[in-house]
Specification:
2 copies of one chain form a homodimer. By secondary structure, chain A is an alpha/beta fold. In chain A, 42% of the residues lie in helices and 13% in strands. Chains A, B: This is Transketolase.
């Protein structure tokens, strides 16, 4: 590699990043300018094909400090991804392909980053997926999978707990395919990292089980960076390459906080261009030899993909079973009839906790879906997520499993788990990843959950102990605001099944989803099998579970409150108020049904009361009155706790009667009817 | 200390904890039995008075592994806190004083724990408060404050990111007054910690700047534990004493996962009692000499408090200014007229971003409130939380501040920050603690925020960049579900002020709150001073900000959408639809107003449309129709983003007109009218 073209290329990245931020008059030029040499070193030895950003054996690159995205967009443009110079010029403008932080959907962007700590944790997930994929499909002579996951992160990411969780697990899992770069520039928004962050970062990573490599001058010493990468590739641990960089290298204010989050001044950019032999009068200029140089790398990547395609063809002949399975996964298809393995239930069947119903579903599904991987945040015996005969995903040296294992032991790391399952999902190959904890502690992972939804990762949360029904653990563990919170997140299914058929329906929708994540809220306590439920009905997200003629009142409920509402409806009928019951196990799915169907479920002219043992917020789109719990719960036996809050057939019936009386004679329209 | 009584006392703790869990048939006996010697060692050298659990200079004890609360309740009972044997017998029963996890409000419980990682992070806050308190009030010869904070934590806490964040900061801050015990019992719910947690925990803590002490046999070697405590008290760093314990020590299943979360079997308890000289036929028995022994410690604590009271009396004479201030703080009172320092605004005043209005409030308040301490999670220049002349809370050796400083540099550690400000609030002395970040990233701290509300810590979140109005940073940073989430949390104020007067009102309510935390959602962009606002009106949480005669439509809005709605109301008036505008800066406060006042603001007979640029969930309690944003935002200039989503006067007016037309002729009742 000629030194000249290398320097020119790196300086092109820096100048372009400065131009991008200056034109937008918004953004972060400092980190891109400081990290340009490392980015150059990484990308020039990576394997990828910009013409097919989804090639399964590409190396992955994650920019965990997503605010430095001017760097990433510049690289993607220079290497020939579908990101034009005009796209770079519309950085951070409405409807552009270059938003303020990198988002999934932009060609070459692997995961959405910006919220700090997420990217490096996604990278752990990408590395787990690669290790599992390779262990599952590689054969002697057929190395179908050997890609690396590279990640840049800064001090901000390292201060975040989510990163601590994921990086500790990465160390435990000995993910040698993960190579991260710590941009140790000593600057964060509050100024010097000396004000809050004086721990020994790399020392800590070593204690997690990482290998550390040092590049003391990453502003200019590209060879040292490349050498560190070569070494990192050889270890059996995750690697962190600490690069000492100067934020805003080249700027008159290099090394200072002022270049972090604001554009460079005009004269600063001029001196930069003059210093590095660019025309100071011109912006957004790339020397043709830089394009040529980078495009050669991309062409080599395209050739590697072509080679891989040949290898995979041969593989399919030699290993027809695995080959067909893998080809299906790469097409993003599920095996034919997969959902038929899920159980259905009849009214006479035993009452079962929905966490237990979920266990049955997971057991059946994993047998037909090699792409189903996941586990629990140290609540396996409570979440009931580990199927009989499961192999743990563990390094063989532990004697506890191997990388072809599909069951993950996340430890008590909910937020890390959320970001990791996002990363596994982002790997491709149809991975269906799930994480499990108590519903209340999915909130610990709020930051990752909203990114699942924003980035269209169809991950699954197995969220058991879904209400005050968990009993003795008390208010610290009993969700109140949780469903209101999750239902308000766009593009998120929040299932709370009432029985076995609804649980099977929830899994059908969750597994077949390609763009929408799911939270499955599951009970600790037993739930009866309902006579009015079926998988087919539940797949609509909402339906009439207890029909009556000429209903004068409708109770609408979810989960454990559906059977309770049916019991209450019977009491109300005795009082002369014919009462129907509607189950809406998932708002998101129900909202997508045709208007006339929805209106047949929640019609005009009948008062509707919601029944759910948590915050009533959000229910008004389906009901006129709400019986819920707008306070924290209580510790006690499940039955006692329900009784304490009057969630009994009598308590529900009492409020149903009040609702009926209140709206008597009023000309009610369905809450579904809205002005716009 | 006689060895005999010591052993008897420790075994009493173990047997009692086993009895408690067995009677409840629910709970965790293993950790209490393993940690009993350490608990004994800590409590017998702590300074506290069970008759006055609020004495300000008491040593604090935090059980971060809150599931082991049978241990804590046992200790509190044995030492003479107001927790009877009957209370112990009703462990985990409805309405008992001994719920499934320790909650603030139980005498002797400092903070609510159970959600893992929170307690140790609260402990960091308690230690920060002590350091600040001592640096502020101690004088030569008058050591008013020298208490320690002790904390027990297990593997679960150490896996949680929130603990990593707080413990890293504790190391940076050199909190020598913090002594934590790591119960290294190698067991978590999934079995051995070998499956997920093989990092070098104490090595990591050392890299954070902690001192480590080891007790290889904490099952029996109480002297070694006491010695370690003595050493830990002498260092200028936070200390971690690693105690190797056997979970369920004494049980037939000691050391195994089976004693973690389930009661001991009957014959196991019998052999335990026989082995240790207790009557196997009897339960809940405490030898009188054990009571006597522990009560002596408590009496020494009471005497220490009496000494302290004398010292404080003398202090008040010698330092009348500080003495009076401190006496006021200890009474839990605010200085007279404190709220008069807050600014009021007139319609002619300049438009100002509410984050900037908040900056003015904080600057004024800190000058009169020595108890106001807080800071930002590395967003100081964006959150505008640091007042002119602020001193950073830092160890002097850093040269960056000192412990009397009131401004905290939290680093990018939102969850840790949330738990730390809870701990500061829990310290007492009227501490008013605040944390700051972007509104969207308060979600990273969901776990701590719900505990603020549950535990009645009146902490304050300064949450700027409160909507898509933050512009270019894009959807990763733009809150959508956030206010719906927070408003669904019981006992939480969620202020979104529309102008200067409302911002001052928000601070008045937040600072004067004694039991309810607050989130202040503040704009990045400028907001005009409204002609219809006043501090007095805003203190009601909701009011008519734009009155018209015979309103045919009401728009109800918060924050930046209030002025937008007023502009829309003017357009609607031109179209013949007289439209009033209501501002509801805080739902919680508005909900507490008298019914007739609320109904005067949102009366029957008029269609009401909510206007807020985020999820509409939760608005139905005030409005019949909703204009919001039930999708993720977009990256672009603020004005462009608002326009893209049609949040313009014309866009609001259009929907207002649709609402008016839709409900025309219908006999509408106010959404405030409900059946029950």
């Amino acid at each position: 590699m000629s030194q000249d073209i290398q320097t020119k290329a790196i300086n092109t990245i820096r100048v372009l990043a400065a131009d991008i931020v200056a034109k937008a008059n918004s953004g972060h030029p400092g980190a891109p300018m400081g990290m340009a040499p490392a980015a150059h070193a990484v990308y020039t030895q990576m394997k990828f094909n910009p013409k097919n950003p989804h090639w399964i054996n590409r190396d992955r690159f994650v920019l965990s400090n997503g605010h430095a995205c001017a760097l990433l967009y510049t690289l993607l443009h220079l290497f020939g991804y579908d990101l034009t110079m005009d796209d770079l010029k519309s950085f951070r403008q409405i409807n552009s392909k270059t938003p303020g932080h990198p988002e999934v959907g932009i060609p070459g962007v692997e995961v959405t980053t910006g919220p700090l700590g997420q990217g490096i944790s996604n990278a752990v997930g990408l590395a787990i997926a690669q290790a599992n994929f390779a262990a599952t499909y590689n054969k002697p002579g057929y190395t179908l999978s050997d890609n690396y996951t590279y990640c840049f992160f800064g001090d901000g990411c390292m201060m975040e707990g989510v990163a601590s969780e994921a990086m500790s697990l990465a160390g435990h899992l000995q993910l040698g395919n993960l190579i991260a770069f710590y941009d140790d520039n000593k600057i964060s928004i509050d100024g010097s990292t000396e004000v809050a962050f004086t721990e020994d970062v790399c020392g800590r990573l070593e204690k997690y089980g990482w290998d550390i490599f040092e590049v003391p001058d990453a502003d200019t010493d590209v060879a040292a960076i490349s050498e560190a990468i070569a070494k990192a590739k050889k270890t059996n641990k995750p690697s962190c390459i600490r690069i000492r960089t100067t934020i805003g290298y080249g700027s008159l204010n290099a090394g200072s906080h002022s270049v972090h989050g604001a554009p460079l001044k005009k004269d600063d950019i001029i001196q930069l261009k003059e210093k590095w032999g660019f025309d100071p009068e011109k912006s957004f200029v790339v020397p043709q030899e830089v394009y040529d140089f980078y495009h050669k790398i991309s062409e080599a990547g395209a050739a590697a993909e072509a080679e891989w395609n040949k290898l995979f063809e041969a593989y399919q002949k030699e290993f027809p079973k695995e080959g067909a399975e893998l080809a299906r996964r790469l097409r993003g298809e599920l095996p034919e009839g997969w959902q038929n393995v899920l159980p259905t239930y009849q009214p006479g069947d035993a009452a079962v906790a929905s966490r237990k119903l979920s266990e049955v579903c997971l057991g059946k599904l994993q047998a037909v879906l090699p792409e189903l991987v996941g586990g629990s945040a140290d609540l396996t015996p409570s979440n009931l997520t580990r199927w009989s005969g499961a192999i743990d995903f563990q390094p063989e040296s532990t004697g506890l499993g191997n990388y072809s294992g599909k069951y993950l032991r996340f430890g008590v790391r909910e937020h890390g788990m959320g970001a990791i399952i996002n990363g596994i999902s982002a790997y491709g190959a149809n991975y269906k990843s799930f994480g499990a904890t108590f519903l209340n502690f999915v909130s610990y992972a709020s930051g990752a959950l909203r990114l699942s939804a924003l980035s269209h990762h169809p991950v699954i949360w197995v969220a058991t102990h879904d209400s005050i029904g968990l009993g003795e653990d008390g208010p610290t563990h009993q969700p109140i605001e949780t469903l209101a919170h999750f239902r308000a997140i766009p593009n998120l299914m929040v299932w709370r099944p009432a029985d076995g058929n609804e649980t099977s329906a929830a899994y059908i929708k969750a597994i077949s989803s390609t763009k929408t994540p799911s939270v499955l809220a599951l009970s600790r306590q037993n739930l009866p099998q309902l006579s009015g439920s079926s998988v087919e009905k539940a797949l609509k997200g909402g339906y009439v579970v207890h029909e009556v003629d000429n209903a004068k009142l409708i109770l609408v409920a979810t989960g454990s409150e559906v059977s309770l509402s049916i019991d209450a409806a019977k009491l109300l009928a005795e009082k002369g108020i014919p009462t129907a019951v509607v189950s809406i196990p998932d708002f998101f799915t129900f909202d997508q049904q045709p208007a006339d169907y929805k209106l047949s479920v929640l019609p005009d002219g009948v008062p509707i009361m919601s029944v759910e043992v948590m915050a009533t917020s959000g229910w008004a789109k389906y009901a006129h009155a709400h019986f819920g719990l707008n306070r924290f719960g209580a510790s006690g036996k499940t039955a006692d706790v329900y009784k304490f809050f009057d969630f009994t057939p009598e308590g529900v019936a009492k409020r149903g009667e009040q609702t009926f009386e209140f709206f008597k004679g009023k000309n009610l329209i369905s809450p579904l009817q809205t002005p716009f």
